TrEMBL record:
Transmembrane segments: 6-27, 99-117, 123-144, 156-176, 188-207, 322-342, 348-372, 384-407
Pfam families: CLN3 (PF02487)
Superkingdom of origin: Eukaryota
UniProt membrane topology term: Multi-pass membrane protein
Database matches in InterPro entries: Battenin_disease_Cln3, Battenin_disease_Cln3_subgr, MFS_trans_sf
GO annotation, biological process: lysosome organization; regulation of intracellular pH
Name of the featured protein: Battenin
Keyword vocabulary terms for this entry: Lysosome, Membrane, Transmembrane, Transmembrane helix, Transport
Family the entry assigns: Belongs to the battenin family.
């Protein structure tokens, strides 16, 4: 080990914080992004009036629920679909791009996302900024999870805790800055400092990565050549090498039993993001000390607090029964769906408690999934397995976003 375990843990904590920060902030700002669209459809207000108009809720809505014309799932889909595409295909080809270039690209994408969302004159430009945040987060997560295989498994705890910290920091800072009177635009510009902090982190951790990749690929090809001919390796072109490695990695997804990790993780994230982007907006308690916008922001903040606590728990408790976490999260989603439909919750504090519990389940599922993948996968295939399994949460989130559109339309029509 070049660095001590503690310093590596802290480095990965910082990387997790910086990598997920823009993604979380975009979800916390989802209401304000969509409120901008509603304001544009009426008149052309100043940036300050966008924030103040939203504080009062959607006065144009005469139905049972205080709804935005478009569900916050629109922002969720823009925030997750690019990540999903990257995680589906990048593990098979990403080895061609050195880690340093990946980190630089992620930083540029994250900074651009803050600029686009804060300064955009139209909502479609804001959505484009959200897409850039998704690209940054997806490529960064895939790369840094793959990177953990070169070090002790302890760094997974640092990564999990850092990504949980990003959730709390992003949601809490956005809520606090807007609560004290700063406009969403100014708040997002202030947060530009975080993407550039990633460049200050010692991110070129395993310099031997490319050498190990070449050694592994050559070893794989030599094994293949033994079953064909002695000259097969010598004359095999680079394209054939890439195709062979791609096919080998695809077969590993099934041979290593990754589905038993990917499926429970996907179910957990489907249930929790169905809650976050499909139901939270509709869990509104009128005539209390918090406006609709503030209630939504604090839902997001408490959820992220739960995620931080559970993603930081790997040093204390490990949960192998991932299916149990999936089942409990589904129960949460069904309970809150019924609560939205029949409105039987007596007060806001009960919803706060359930949302915090939801975050605990989601964070525990994430960090335990990757811990047991790193523990139970063969060393030579571990790097690919860590990257490929990360598709589980993104697939669940994308499906939740699609379902949330229909749920939002149904409830807002009542």
């Amino acid at each position: 080990m070049i660095r001590s375990t503690l310093s590596l843990w802290f480095i990965y904590w910082l990387l997790g914080l910086c990598n997920n920060f823009a993604y979380v902030v975009m979800l916390s700002a989802a209401h304000d992004i969509l409120k901008k669209q509603e304001s544009e459809n009426a008149t052309a207000p100043t940036p300050a009036s966008v924030g103040s108009n939203f504080q009062g809720g959607n006065s144009s809505n005469s139905g049972r629920y205080d709804c935005n014309p478009v569900s916050t799932a629109a922002v969720l889909l823009a925030d997750i679909l690019p990540t999903l595409v990257i995680k589906l295909f990048a593990p098979f080809v990403i080895h061609k791009l050195p880690y340093g270039y990946r980190v630089l690209f992620c930083t540029i994408m994250a900074a651009t996302s803050f600029l686009f969302v804060s300064l955009s004159p139209a909502v479609w430009i804001s959505i484009l900024g959200v897409i850039f945040a998704s690209i940054s987060s997806g490529l960064g997560e895939l790369s840094f999870l793959s990177l953990t295989v070169f070090f002790s498994r302890d760094v997974l705890g640092g990564w999990g805790s850092g990504t949980g910290g990003a959730g709390v920091a992003g949601a809490l800072l956005y809520s606090l800055f807007t609560q004290v009177g700063l406009s969403p635009q100014v708040t997002l510009l202030i947060m530009l400092v975080v993407p550039f902090a990633m460049l200050m982190t010692p991110c070129s951790l395993p310099l031997e990565y490319n050498r190990r990749w070449k050694h592994w690929a050559s070893h794989l090809l030599r094994e293949t050549a033994c079953h064909q001919s002695e000259c097969a390796l010598h004359y095999m072109p680079d394209l054939s090498i890439s195709v062979l490695v791609w096919l080998h990695n695809y077969s590993l997804f099934w041979e290593q039993g990754l589905l038993k990790f990917v499926f429970p993780l996907g179910v957990v994230y489907f249930a929790e993001y169905f809650i976050n982007q499909g139901l939270m907006e509709l869990l509104y308690f009128p005539n209390i000390f918090l406006t609709h916008a503030e209630q939504y922001r604090w839902y997001q903040t408490l959820y992220q607090v739960g995620v931080l606590v559970s993603r930081s728990s790997l040093c204390c408790v490990k949960i192998r029964k991932l299916w149990a976490l999936s089942l409990l999260q589904v129960v949460n989603a069904v309970l809150l769906l019924l609560a939205v439909r029949y409105q039987f919750f007596p007060n806001l504090w009960l919803v706060f408690a359930i949302v915090l519990y939801e975050g605990l389940l989601g964070g525990a599922a994430y960090v335990n999934t990757f811990f047991f993948i790193s523990k139970e996968t063969e060393e030579r295939q571990r790097e690919f397995a860590m990257a490929a399994a990360s598709v589980g949460d993104s697939l669940g989130i994308a499906l939740a976003g699609l379902v949330s559109f229909f749920v939002h339309r149904y409830f807002c029509s009542l």
